[in-house]
């Protein structure tokens, strides 16, 4: 019997549907004519059952069905608009005309009690009309409305795939019979090996992220693949309890803004679906909130739109809290607010407000009006208490950034009973900050409500792998000549030793090196070389991250000059352009050379749109902070990084180019993003990729501090400190009052020391507790002490003047003695951040528990260096305790690994795999040493011989076991003598090793053929 689509995946879809509660019929058994889209008898039956008042009003029932059928027929004039209209009808939001001329909303589907609906799945559903009749493989009906169409293909034809099924839907069925898709929620395309879902009018493409996989964030994409993933996807998605929530709340439409765009329908991806429902469930359970930790670029802004829509449309939320909710969406930058608001507006979100200033926000929240409010975190400053309602839901974007400290305190104080949900791609956990503690719910596993990892996102195709390419920017420094020149400058300027130390220290800054004109020119020339060779041919754009604003301008000008010198033009002959985006203050103190880059929000938005267009010559944008995070431009193919970054900012930065993109002109898709690193990536790239985790010890710290007791201590310490200023009116802000305060704490006196130490301790407690209500009565006195403290802090005006006078000369001296600046590609510093690479780096980081700082406090140059140095740090610690054969052998393995050249992706992964094995052996050696396990230490001391011993022991007669070590020694020695580098690829080398192995076995009376020889040979080939 041959495998066919009907005997394999099509039949399985029907069987899985039956198990999920669908009634199964053949298409010919449906009570409909071939030209019907809606099964009118079933629709009428449900309409009357869900709207009992229509039972005695058949004419109004006919009018409802007539209006539905007219909307279905209207799909021939535009499928997306017809689908949007029918989506509103199916949700019950449309008011139908009655026979008496009234307009009354009607329920077509029961979204609350699912059992009140008719769920039917049918195969081979025929449709006929003015064109050729067609058959749909599987159709899922709810109350007679076809909500899902599944097109299946055979899994055993090489030239047939899910794309073939998707093409049939897009090119044939939707084109010839758009009316059948007027009530559609989504389509399915599968051949049994892959499973994809998409909204109507989704262009099929093998790499399309619109035709999206479905699954669960609990699944490992490396484990659940192929037919198993198809079954898992179908069973998860094609259930009434999933399809109906998507239809009711999570279907959105993005409307065209101009003639160059078209209306589109978009749907949630499965991690967005899970998180949106989890937020909704937690709100209904009156939970405190939760943390959504999803990979950068996987659609957190859309997730917030889906969550807001579900909360605002659900009557259960109104019933729970007595009124409609207010959803506050918080971003930390104005441009992100604009970006978020635009997305919400085009998605047709109801009751949307974007306050222009603090006053508008405060008035809006005091009013208690329901709806969506999108704002920055900064507008909550000085808000005080605004509203006590518990049905305020706060959704915080980029929850790892400025949402802590005073800003986080401000919005929590403004709406203290709200539920707070944080969405981030880069959670932070260190001694000062914790995204887990700020947003996490202790009842959630590891304080995370929803987790979607980089590996899952890349495997699903929602984001692309990123290759980080290392660069070495070298130069020679004539130190002796520089010292002589500096001494000469000091003599001319009559500088004392302290002033010399100050000037040299001030100049010994990374900015001095980075701002060298020769270095700027060399780096920018390399940037243009790389861009023209690898990025421009693909139609992609580039982002350059420079150290500061001065260097942003320098890089922009240098790149412009390089592009002009090389005649780098677009396909239409226009010269490529360079844009600059940075925060420029509109004030008289802003340097003149910066003022030309002062952009209004509208101008910045226009630049962003230009950058995103493939035919616009705006090819580069140079930034220092703006657009380095939170900027979403799929056309960005490369990010050139020449600014130190670490932890969350590092990870956010290197994932800028990871968005999928298709060139609309050539049809070519982005395979991966690039980051070209000129600075030496921050020391913790391994930790940044692995991501933080709240440890068991951390969990215990969450509630160990009694805030009331700490507040009581604060008041006691404040009172003690105020005794130093007894009799001084702390409300008096005059100069005389300040002068008297200074007299109480004279410079050099014990009172000054007591005040400084006491205030610093007080400040720490205040920042921890604020805005605790017990602090409010003492706020004015504390701030008075803070001003006194600021007034006595030393201000070295002379040193600042010295730098203003001689800083430029000192910097010029250093630049003048930096010679031979050369930019080199460093293949050994190239890290491939695909799913496999991410997993390996993460496992190494977890195995070694890589810290955020290196032992010597210096920056690491690359991930390989960090991994090796971290392993060696452990080895040196053990070797320092005494001679140890095992640790010496591990050190030798590290040295061999260090000298290996990493030239391509495959070698990169092989390097990481070997590093992981060594890391595991180091940890095993530590444990064996602590346990006194000499046998394990011996195996680890020479892992090759340890494995050979095991192989020989398992295949040696009992009587010969005592001479196993001798056999292993002989094999090890012989192979060491005969084998040479590359012997495995040489026929003579391979024969020589085989011959010697057989000779050893024969000498000890062991078989020279069979399992023993085969296993020894395979092991020797792989490890010698």
Write the layout of secondary structure elements.
Blueprint: H1 9-19, E1 23-26, H2 40-50, H3 58-73, H4 79-91, E2 95-97, E3 103-105, E4 119-127, E5 134-142, E6 145-152, H5 162-176, E7 186-190, E8 195-198, H6 226-237, H7 240-250, E9 252-254, E10 264-266, H8 270-284, E11 289-294, H9 300-313, H10 315-321, E12 326-331, H11 334-346, E13 352-353, H12 358-367, E14 371-376, E15 392-396, H13 405-414, E16 419-424, H14 435-439, E17 450-452, H15 454-460, E18 466-477, H16 479-492, H17 497-507, H18 510-514, H19 517-535, E19 541-545, H20 549-566, E20 577-581, H21 592-595, H22 601-612, E21 618-623, E22 636-641, H23 647-654, E23 673-677, H24 685-690, H25 696-701, H26 707-722, H27 735-744, H28 750-769, H29 779-792, H30 797-816, E24 818-833, H31 835-848, H32 863-879, H33 885-899, H34 905-931, H35 934-941, H36 943-954, H37 964-978, H38 987-1003, H39 1011-1023
Parallel strand pairs: 1-4, 6-7, 11-16, 11-17, 12-14, 12-15, 13-14, 15-16, 18-23, 19-21, 19-22, 20-21, 22-23
Antiparallel strand pairs: 2-3, 4-5, 5-6, 7-8, 9-10, 18-24
Helix pairs in contact: 8-9, 15-31, 16-30, 17-30, 19-20, 26-28, 31-32, 31-34, 32-33, 32-34, 33-34, 33-35, 34-35, 35-36, 36-37, 36-39, 37-38
């Amino acid at each position: 019997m041959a495998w066919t689509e009907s005997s394999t995946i099509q039949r399985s879809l029907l069987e899985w549907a039956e198990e999920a509660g669908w009634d199964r019929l053949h298409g010919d058994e449906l009570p409909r004519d071939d030209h019907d889209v809606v099964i009118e008898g079933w629709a009428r039956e449900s309409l009357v059952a869900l709207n009992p008042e229509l039972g005695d009003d058949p004419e109004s029932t006919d009018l409802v069905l007539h209006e539905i059928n007219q909307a279905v027929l209207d799909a021939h004039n535009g499928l997306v608009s017809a689908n949007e209209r029918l989506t509103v009808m199916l949700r019950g939001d449309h008011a139908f005309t009655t026979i008496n001329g009234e307009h009354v909303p009607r329920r077509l589907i029961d979204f609350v009690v699912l059992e009140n609906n008719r769920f039917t799945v049918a195969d081979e559903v025929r449709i006929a009309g003015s064109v050729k009749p067609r058959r749909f493989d599987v159709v899922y009906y709810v109350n007679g409305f076809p909500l899902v169409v599944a097109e299946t293909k055979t899994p055993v034809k090489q030239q047939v795939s899910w794309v073939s099924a998707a093409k049939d839907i897009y090119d044939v069925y939707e084109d010839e019979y758009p009316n059948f898709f007027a009530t559609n929620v989504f389509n399915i395309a599968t051949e049994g090996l892959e499973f994809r879902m998409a909204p109507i009018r989704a262009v099929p493409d093998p790499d399309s992220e619109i035709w999206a996989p479905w699954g669960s964030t609990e699944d490992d994409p490396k484990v659940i693949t192929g037919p198993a993933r198809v079954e898992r996807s179908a069973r998860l998605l094609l259930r009434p309890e999933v399809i109906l929530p998507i239809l009711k709340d999570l279907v959105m439409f993005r409307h065209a803004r101009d003639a160059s765009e078209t209306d589109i329908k978009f749907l949630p991806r499965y991690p967005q679906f899970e998180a949106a429902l989890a937020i909704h469930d937690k709100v209904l359970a009156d939970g405190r909130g939760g943390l959504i930790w999803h990979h950068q670029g996987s659609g957190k802004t859309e997730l917030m739109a889906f969550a807001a829509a579900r909360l605002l449309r659900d009557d259960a939320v109104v019933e729970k809290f007595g009124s409609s909710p207010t959803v506050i969406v918080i971003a930390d930058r104005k441009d992100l607010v604009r970006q978020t608001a635009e997305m919400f507006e085009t998605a047709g979100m109801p009751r949307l407000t974007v306050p222009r200033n603090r006053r508008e926000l405060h008035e809006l929240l005091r009013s208690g009006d329901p709806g969506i409010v999108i704002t920055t975190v900064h507008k909550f400053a000085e808000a005080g208490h605004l509203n006590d309602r518990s049905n305020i839901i706060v959704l915080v974007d980029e929850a790892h950034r400025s949402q802590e400290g005073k800003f986080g305190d401000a919005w929590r104080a403004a709406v203290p009973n709200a539920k707070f949900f944080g969405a981030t791609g880069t959670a932070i956990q260190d001694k000062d900050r914790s995204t887990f503690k700020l947003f996490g719910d202790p009842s959630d596993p590891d304080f995370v409500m929803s987790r979607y990892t980089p590996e899952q996102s890349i495997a699903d195709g929602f984001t692309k792998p990123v290759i980080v390419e290392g660069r070495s920017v070298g130069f020679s420094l004539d130190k002796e000549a520089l010292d002589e020149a500096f001494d000469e400058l000091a003599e001319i300027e009559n500088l004392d030793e302290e002033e010399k130390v100050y000037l040299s220290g001030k100049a010994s800054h990374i900015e001095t090196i980075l701002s060298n004109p020769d270095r700027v020119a060399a780096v920018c020339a390399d940037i243009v070389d790389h861009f023209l060779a690898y990025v421009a041919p693909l139609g992609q754009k580039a982002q350059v991250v420079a150290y500061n604003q001065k260097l942003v301008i320098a890089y922009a000008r240098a790149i412009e000059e390089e592009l002009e010198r090389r005649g780098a033009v677009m396909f239409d002959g226009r010269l490529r352009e360079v844009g600059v985006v940075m925060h420029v203050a509109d004030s008289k103190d802003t340097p003149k050379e910066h003022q030309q880059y002062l952009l209004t929000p509208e101008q910045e938005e226009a630049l962003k749109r230009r950058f995103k267009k493939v035919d616009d010559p705006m090819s580069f944008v140079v930034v220092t902070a703006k657009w380095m995070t939170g900027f979403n431009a799929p056309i960005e193919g490369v990010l050139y990084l020449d600014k130190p970054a670490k932890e969350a900012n590092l990870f956010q930065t290197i994932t800028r180019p990871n968005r999928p993109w298709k060139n609309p002109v050539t049809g070519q898709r982005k395979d991966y993003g690039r980051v070209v690193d000129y600075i030496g990536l921050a020391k913790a790239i391994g930790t940044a990729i692995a991501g933080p985790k709240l440890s068991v010890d951390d969990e215990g710290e969450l509630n160990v501090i009694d805030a009331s007791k700490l507040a009581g201590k604060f008041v006691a310490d404040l009172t003690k400190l105020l005794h130093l200023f007894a009799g001084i009116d702390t409300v008096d802000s005059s100069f005389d009052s300040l002068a008297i305060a200074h007299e109480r704490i004279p410079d050099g006196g014990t009172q000054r020391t007591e005040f400084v130490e006491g205030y610093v301790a007080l400040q720490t407690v205040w920042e921890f507790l604020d805005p605790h209500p017990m602090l409010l009565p003492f706020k004015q006195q504390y701030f008075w002490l803070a001003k006194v403290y600021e007034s006595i802090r030393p201000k070295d005006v002379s040193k600042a003047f010295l730098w203003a006078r001689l800083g430029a000369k000192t910097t010029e001296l250093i630049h003048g003695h930096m010679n031979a600046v050369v930019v080199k590609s460093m293949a050994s510093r190239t890290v491939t951040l695909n799913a496999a690479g991410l997993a390996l780096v993460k496992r190494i980081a977890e195995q070694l528990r890589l810290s955020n700082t290196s032992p010597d406090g210096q920056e690491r140059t690359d991930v390989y260096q960090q991994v090796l140095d971290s392993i060696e740090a452990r080895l040196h610690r053990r070797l320092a305790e005494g001679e140890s054969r095992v640790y010496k052998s591990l050190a030798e393995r590290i040295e061999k690994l260090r000298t290996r050249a990493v030239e391509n992706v495959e070698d990169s992964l092989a390097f990481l795999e070997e590093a992981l094995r060594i890391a595991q052996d180091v940890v095993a050696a530590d444990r064996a040493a602590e346990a006194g396990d000499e046998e394990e230490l011996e195996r680890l001391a020479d892992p090759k011989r340890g494995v050979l011993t095991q192989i020989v022991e398992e295949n040696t007669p009992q009587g010969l076991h005592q001479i196993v070590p001798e056999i292993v020694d002989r094999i090890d020695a012989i192979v060491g003598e005969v084998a040479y580098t590359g012997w495995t690829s040489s026929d003579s080398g391979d024969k020589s090793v085989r011959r010697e192995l057989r000779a050893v076995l024969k000498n000890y009376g062991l078989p020279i053929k069979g399992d023993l020889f085969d296993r020894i040979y395979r092991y020797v080939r792989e490890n010698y």
